[in-house]
Amino acid sequence: xxxxxxxxxxxxxxxxxxxxxxxxxxxxxxxxxxxxxxxxxxxxxxxxxxxxxxxxxxxxxxxxxxxxxxxx
Length: 72
Hints:
- 47% of the residues lie in helices and 0% in strands.
- The protein is an all-alpha fold.
- It is elongated.
- Residues 47-72 are annotated as: Disordered.
- This is DUF3460 family protein.
- InterPro entries: DUF3460 (IPR021853).
């Protein structure tokens, strides 16, 4: 291995490293945003009710309309 060799670092990785250095609280902000929108407690009983209430979809949905007197 030559003496001048150094590991490759992509532009994206460099950008993210600079962004994290400029905003040290970035990861905590991301986690807070995710918790606000996605990390919610799951109501297992409600999910079970939703699954039981599902109605199976009919095959060939566009062809379920009745025929008109003039053909299709």
